[in-house]
Amino acid sequence: MKNIVLIGFMGTGKTSTGRLLANRLGYSFVDTDYKIEKDCKQTIKEMFEAHGESYFREKEAAVVQKISRQRQVVVSTGGGTILNPANMQALRKNGIIISLTASVDVILERTGRRNTRPLLEHKDDEARREIITALRAEREVLYKRADLIINTSDLTPLQVVEKIMGFVKKDVKPHA
Hints:
CATH architecture: 3-Layer(aba) Sandwich
CATH topology: Rossmann fold
Largest sheet: 5 strands, parallel
CATH superfamily: P-loop containing nucleotide triphosphate hydrolases
Radius of gyration: 15 Å
Structural class: alpha/beta
CATH class: Alpha Beta
Number of strands: 5
């Protein structure tokens, strides 16, 4: 079976779902954001502050290229990974792309738990809501190119895993 690649906006449950799914499948699990931080010995927030978003996106692309060559892996991508067409081309080559979505309210609640999201560094919930809404609108067409889309707003990570398992068991061939 192909790799399972989880894409979607921050706070949609990619990491928690990915860990459970990898365990269920007996696959390795890779969170691209964590891998970038480990490789660079710096948090994403620190990278943004010291070098800017373009530096981070370069590191992200390098990690994606490396991970995309692995087998039997569940990949949790950062929310903006889909912005680089080369990232998605590499991940799709050996992967089933699954987009996780959630409502703006759910994303606000989930991302508000930790202050580790450089693109949401605003103390005001209304400003964060505006940023989330704008970024989601900008990226939505790219997220919709997935082989499967799951709204996680009212689902636990385990329920999301069940939906993914049902999809991959059908042995659906992803589109090119």
